[in-house]
């Protein structure tokens, strides 16, 4: 069956998904004629209510209250805390270590997963022992900012935990959170808990030497209940101050798609809590009255800080704009909700040692989620959701619905992503190849190749790339109305698009950077950059498009302009200028121009079976080894049962998915071969913890009929 466009799809069902819960505590208590008090709502009567709970009846506020079931017979739940440390100056290593140590000091079965490959996470793990692990298998923007939807997906994939907690890396958690979670673990239903942390501007406490509790400067154990009553602490109202937790990770959190929010850039925690509540699939516990975590300062003051790779980027305010934009076009977070009851919502209060549930109709922090003006995030301006036609990420463009632009010039992006040899990998793509672009990007990331940059051929691809965290720039001179399905080899569209690539490469060479141009249908098995750079100056390395396995590989018109390495030296720049000029005056694609200029028409400049010498510049052209850089027709590699294993035996750096017509056939060949690293339905790279089975069954349905529309 054809797949729907990604923005129309709902999250795929997971194993163990429970049916949505309906009803309310008050309804259930009324139905039972007051004989039982209900623990949490919805569909289940908790038979384990204590005699104290049975005697409580209705409280003076008119809401039905229940006691969360207790008892010591249940197994201690496994709690996993997920967080993503930030580098300085945005993050404080001292505060982060204090926070993580406080998590490890919590009672019970608690472990910590630090998401990210940065030195901050690695250093913390080295100091804090086996209960802290680092998992770098999440998606990042090119600035180094993690993606929130990838972090949540990683937590949801955790099969070795009962409860997931997602918290800012600088929030100190108190034992109260584990006590509460242990009690909630006995509720036989899917639930989601949200609570605001507290600001402590004069935080002069440290962990004891054994890490078990916080102490004052004199070593005396802190009793926060005595020192500062809970009602005197100021709640941390920023999005980063929210603590969220949920059970049963195998069950989905909410209906719909979690957008690609940038972590720590506002709104995402509040958006998630709001959508879980609106979906009515889980019991929602508002635990704001409990003091579960402390922040030593004010997170709100960190709003203007930015996570910048090597601290070379200007203000990251555009990242906050991305999150506001996504919140405006996904879910109901940004819009005024009609007056309604929330049957799944319960306020948590503590009386003596009991956690009590009170049925409520709105969140204690409702102004945090939905402002009085109907906008999100406490009055932050969000674009209205009216009259927005979505396709992919965007289809119509107006000041209110268009995603932010990147505030960086091409030169700034090159400076940011280039490696130590001032070399970059260039990918060029339009809307017809957006999914293939992302699969290409995902695999480069898996290979730790981060010196890539993307040229977008159209505004749709540019905005899509921004929301996917790519270092992207748009070519203002690229052809318009590029066809989705009819831009394959030999078409007029193909000829126009290919001529963009050589012109962009020339521009980058003139800026002083070496370029490895790689079409996005080139699958990388390893990083070829060191090998290509070693070819030396005044040398141009290109893939051969020859398919006969005997004879020269530099025959006429067999230079493939979809994969080549060009150095930023005088010989190469002059030769590229000649190629661009030749292609401009040609009615063909740019590929024949490469061969005719560099090797001469009919190969008059060939000096061996795999080399040419351009006489005006003395630029040597090397046709790259077939086994290491095979094209799509070489040895029928794409038809092998196991393409990956066969290429590994040959020692391939890459394999080009060319010599096949039509976009859908190309996508099908790559996916069915297992050389695919992107999930279009969730807009995430496939990780080790991802379910890749759908791509192994790719032949059972029509391939992404509308994936690029």
TrEMBL record:
Highest taxon in the source lineage: Eukaryota
Pfam families noted in UniProt: Nucleotid_trans (PF03407)
Residue ranges of domain Nucleotide-diphospho-sugar transferase in the record: 449-669
Region (Disordered): 1-20, 54-93
Record-linked InterPro entries: Nucl-diP-sugar_transferase, RAY1-like
Biased composition (Gly residues): 64-73
GO MF annotation terms: glycosyltransferase activity
Transmembrane regions listed in the UniProt entry: none
UniProt name for this protein: Nucleotide-diphospho-sugar transferase domain-containing protein
Species of origin: Miscanthus lutarioriparius
């Amino acid at each position: 069956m054809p797949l729907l466009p990604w923005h129309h799809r709902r999250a795929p069902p997971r194993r163990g998904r429970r049916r949505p819960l309906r009803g309310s505590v008050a309804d259930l208590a009324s139905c039972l004629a007051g004989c039982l008090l209900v623990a949490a709502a919805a569909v289940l009567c908790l038979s384990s209510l204590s005699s104290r709970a049975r005697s409580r009846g209705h409280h003076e506020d008119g809401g039905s209250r229940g006691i969360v079931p207790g008892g010591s017979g249940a197994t201690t739940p496994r709690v996993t805390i997920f967080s993503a440390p930030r580098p300085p100056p945005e993050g404080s290593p001292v505060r982060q270590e204090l926070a993580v140590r406080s998590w490890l000091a919590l009672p019970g079965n608690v472990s910590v997963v630090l998401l990210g490959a940065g030195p901050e996470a690695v250093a913390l793990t080295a100091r804090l022992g086996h209960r802290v692990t680092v998992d770098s298998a999440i998606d990042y923007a090119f600035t180094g900012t993690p993606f929130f939807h990838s972090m949540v997906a990683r937590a949801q994939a955790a099969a070795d935990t009962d409860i997931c907690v997602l918290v800012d890396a600088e929030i100190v958690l108190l034992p109260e959170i584990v006590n509460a979670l242990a009690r909630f673990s006995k509720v036989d239903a899917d639930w989601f808990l949200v609570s605001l942390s507290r600001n402590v501007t004069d935080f002069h406490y440290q962990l004891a030497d054994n890490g078990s509790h916080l102490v004052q400067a004199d070593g005396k154990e802190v009793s926060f209940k005595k020192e500062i009553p809970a009602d005197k602490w100021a709640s941390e109202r920023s999005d980063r101050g929210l603590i969220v937790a949920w059970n049963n990770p195998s069950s989905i959190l909410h209906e719909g798609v979690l957008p690609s929010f940038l972590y720590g850039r506002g709104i995402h925690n509040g958006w998630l809590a709001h959508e879980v509540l609106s979906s009515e699939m889980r019991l929602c516990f508002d635990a704001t009255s409990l003091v579960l975590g402390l922040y030593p300062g004010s997170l709100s003051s960190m709003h203007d800080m930015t996570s910048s790779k090597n601290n070379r980027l200007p203000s990251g305010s555009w990242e906050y704009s991305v999150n506001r934009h996504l919140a405006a076009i996904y879910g109901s977070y940004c819009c005024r909700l009609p007056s309604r009851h929330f049957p799944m919502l319960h306020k948590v209060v503590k009386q003596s040692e009991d956690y009590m549930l009170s049925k409520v109709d709105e969140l204690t922090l409702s102004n945090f989620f939905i402002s009085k003006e109907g906008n999100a995030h406490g009055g932050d301006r969000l674009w209205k959701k009216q009259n927005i036609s979505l396709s992919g990420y965007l289809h119509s463009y107006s000041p209110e619905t268009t995603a932010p632009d990147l505030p960086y010039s091409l030169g700034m992006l090159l400076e940011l992503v280039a490696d130590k040899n001032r070399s970059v990998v260039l990918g060029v793509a339009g809307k017809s190849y957006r999914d293939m672009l992302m699969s290409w990007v995902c695999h480069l990331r898996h290979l730790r190749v981060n010196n890539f940059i993307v040229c977008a051929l159209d505004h749709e691809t540019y905005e899509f790339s921004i929301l996917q965290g790519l270092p992207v720039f748009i070519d203002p001179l690229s052809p318009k109305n590029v066809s989705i399905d009819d831009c394959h080899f030999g078409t007029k569209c193909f000829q126009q698009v290919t001529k963009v690539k050589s012109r962009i490469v020339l521009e980058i060479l003139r800026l002083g950077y070496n370029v490895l141009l790689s079409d996005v249908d080139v699958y990388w098995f390893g990083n070829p950059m060191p090998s290509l750079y070693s070819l030396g100056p005044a040398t141009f390395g290109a893939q051969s498009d020859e398919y006969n396995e005997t004879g020269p590989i530099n025959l006429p018109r067999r230079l493939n302009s979809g994969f080549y390495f060009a150095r930023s030296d005088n010989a190469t720049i002059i030769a590229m200028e000649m190629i661009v000029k030749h292609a401009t005056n040609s009615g063909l694609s740019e590929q024949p121009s490469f061969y005719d200029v560099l090797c001469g028409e009919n190969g008059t400049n060939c000096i061996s079976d795999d080399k040419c010498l351009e006489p005006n510049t003395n630029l040597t052209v090397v046709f790259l080894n077939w086994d290491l850089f095979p094209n799509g027709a070489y040895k029928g590699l794409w038809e092998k049962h196991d393409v990956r294993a066969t290429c590994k035996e040959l020692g391939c750096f890459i394999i080009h998915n060319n010599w096949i017509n039509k976009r859908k056939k190309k996508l099908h060949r790559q996916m069915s071969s297992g050389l695919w690293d992107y999930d279009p339905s969730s807009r995430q790279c496939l990780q080790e913890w991802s379910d890749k089975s759908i791509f192994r069954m790719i032949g059972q349905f029509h391939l992404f009929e509308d994936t690029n529309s």
